[in-house]
Input
Amino acid sequence: MAQDTRDSESVESRFLESCEVPEYDFNMAPFVLVIFGGTGDLSRRMLLPTLFGLYAEGKFSRECHIIGVGRHGLSDSAYRDMVGQSVRDAGEVKSSEDVASFCSRVSYLQADAGRAESYKEVCRRVTEISSREETASVVYYLAVPPKLIEPIIEGLFGRGLCGGAANPKVVIEKPFGSDKGSAVKLNSFILKHFDESQVYRIDHYLGKETVQNILFFRFGNSIFEPLWNRRYVDHVQITVAESIGIEGRGGFYDEAGVVRDIVQNHMMQLLALVAMEPPAGFEANLVRDEKTKVFRAIRAMSEAYIDKFMVRGQYAGGSVGGERVCGYREEANVAKDSNTATFFAGKFHVDNWRWAGVPFYLRTGKRLRRRSTEICVAFKQPPLRLLGRSCDIIEANRLVLSIQPKEAMSLQLNVKQPGVGNRPYAITMDFDYGESFDVRTRPAYERLLLDCLKGDLTLFARADATEAMWDVVGPIISRWDETAAKDFPNYAAGSEGPAASNRLLESDGRAWRPI
Ligand code: BG6
Output
């Protein structure tokens, strides 16, 4: 071997011990999963079909108990009918026997989350199962609006359900707070009742296969990491473009807006995966430490900076994929003069040794031309125009990681056009997941639910990270709340966003990749 960096047995064994991710143990111990919001949209569209898929594939113990908790008065059998319908609607069903078998593991509990009394029955059922099956782990999944998180945890705590031998886990959905203050308050409330190691703050982006590939790709290949820094990278673009609108969630969205909905969580996570340092190992806290450092290194923004380098937009009516759609202000439960942004573009600086001087441009929006989430690492031009004047038009190398709906990677390079002269020709080397692997796109929740059951926190946000992410975006939200946008709506549905978004890059001599 020409060079062996693993030059001592002890170093090698440390990394094998800490970095090897074991295959799932299909005989995972039995568990009790209590889903608060068990009849809600998230449960019906996402959680129950995903659980069913895992169950049908034998990916976890058949000795599982799923208790849906909701306000509606339903019998167990009516709830099972609803569950069966949800999994069929999601198109996950190969055999109706599987559905019947899965539904037999499901029961229902009618409860008002705000009433302490409701937790008596939760306690009775959970205790009864845990005492019968001693090894059963217990998970409380809070698929509920944010205002119910505290009452539910309070209720569980009141019955002694947050601790004990089962060492239960609690899963909290986004949005995690609505600003830094509320996130700090929520974290401190949760951590009064649970230990951080029991808390799974979910961001479904982290469960996507292509998102997990970012770290794998960076640290599994030796050729890119030496280039992954300010010396070779000109800038980074991260785009989360959606063609859908607000999908009937006007009440929520008009309060939240694009920065709370996407930038504070999904986009910050993508940025962290691109920018973070190699962790000292792949244990959850080592990975989460590195991500948190990135959030802390993002340059704080003054009002003047926000006004100049952060762009907001709101969609007007238009046409998406050939279909006429209304403007944001015409959506149900949205104020007719709403100041809420549905589009965001901005320039961020990660002020650390690796990234000083490299802008990270982030862009996301609803009702854009098409759905496309991708990360583009744009490398610098060669240092010298050695190849003559034609090199004025040479395209800089770009590495594009396509997250969805296309799951792919491409590297843009230059070759010489055949013939006399030095005329460059841009080529791309492409890799497409679908062509190389015979796997369906797995729902992000699948991986996250399994990790939670297994007790692996790597893909879940830690308290300090959620607060640090709010530190980054909080000033933008406040500034935009204080100053009404005078030009809303400023982009047509089906377009690539407002003109100011293009100007943001043009003024730096750069351009967005087309959506
Ligand atoms: C959710 C947002 O977190 O992510 C939605 O609340 C958004 O507004 C969705 O549409 C996007 O998720 P995905 O996986 O479709 O990119």
Summary: Residues 8-14 have pLDDT under 50 and may be disordered. The chain has 15 helices and 18 strands. The CA atoms of residues 16 and 242 lie 40 Å apart. The chain has two domains: 31-173, 207-506.
